[in-house]
Amino acid sequence: MRQRTFSAAPIAIRHLSCRIDNGPVAHLVERVVRNDEVRGSSPLRSTTVPILPIFTFDHTVLRQETSQVEQDSADLQKLIKNMIGTMRNADGLGLAANQVGRSLALTVIDLKHVPGMEDRDSLVLINPALTGTEGESVFEEGCLSLPGIREEIVRPAEIGVKFLDRNLKEVEIEADKILARVIQHEIDHLHGKYFIDYLSPFKLSLLRPKLSRMSRGETDTDYPLAPPEPHHTKPKSKVKRLRGM
Ligand SMILES: [Zn+2]
User: Fold this and answer.
1) How many domains does the chain have?
2) Spatial separation of the C-alpha atoms in residues 80 and 104, rounded to whole Å
């Protein structure tokens, strides 16, 4: 990737992310493997902030372009805090504001679940935008808004991204491996896109039964979901397709 100028903290983030052992197909975006070890230790689960219901599949707010955050406010800081608590309660790696029903260009990422970055706090990205991409990688992705669905998705392997941090200070970083993958997944949410939009029509057709159940609010999760929208209780005939990456 081409050289850029970065602030000190984000450079450290990139170096740490390089420690991830990345095979031809690595696992997991936006959700940590749930097992007894993770659940048993459970230091990341929050009980001190409100847990927000997560919106799913065809909720309108998840298919809309989000609005840019224009200024700091007590409401914004409260939303960030509640999103981090909600993400951790669901063992998520990342969460976009529209996944909790707020159409704002804001996403949080829990670095504690990223190997080599366990001592890091959450990363808050406000108005994020990619500044460059390089290479290609395949990861199996999942999504808190598409429970029970996992698919291998091809995306750029390395990215540059600029954003405002939680103090609305401008930051630009490079990222690779899992961190690059999660950031791209979350930025897609902010533009109304899901990872399943990258699937072929055939693969998408195989997901129809699950998606239909999701639309009707019949999906079981161990984190709270928003109720289905009344006009979306029947399966759609077509899911929006992207023209390219
Ligand atoms: Zn997602």
Assistant:
1) 1
2) 11
